[in-house]
Here is the input.
Amino acid sequence: MFNLKSLTVFAALAVLSVTAQDRNAIYACKNPWWDGPCRTFYGGRNECVNFSGSWNDAISSIRNSGGGNGWHCQWWEHANCKGLVYQNQDDANLHDGNGRFADRLSSFRCR
Ligand SMILES: *[C@@H]1O[C@H](CO)[C@@H](O)[C@H](O)[C@H]1NC(C)=O
Here is the structure.
C-alpha cells in the first residue's frame, strides 16, 4: 500500500514537471505599458497559437514569461504564424518605434 501511494505521488509529480517544461506562458495587454485588459496565453513547444476573437489585431504590450526557463517566442502578423515576424521578447509598447506590430499581432509560437 505504501509503495503504491509513493508511486502515485511520484507519477503525479512527473506529469507536473513535464507540463511545466512543455508549455510556455506569454502575457499580453490590449493597451501599452501593461494596461488592461490583459491575458496570459499558453502554448506548447513549437505550437502556433492564434490570438483569436477580440485579441486578434488588438495587442499593444507583450512579453514571453518563460525567458528565464530558456523559452524564446516569435510574434506573428497573421494567424497560423504567417506574415511578418517580431522577436522582441518583452515589449511594453508596440506603438513606439515604427509601430509596425501594434494592434497587428495574430499568433505566436514559442520554443
Ligand atoms: C488559426 O486561425 C486560422 C485562421 O482563422 C485558422 O485557419 C486556424 O485553424 C487557426 N488555428 C488554430 C490552432 O485554431
Notes: The pocket of 2-acetamido-2-deoxy-beta-D-glucopyranose is lined by residues 50, 79-80 (CB under 6 Å). The chain has one helix and eight strands.
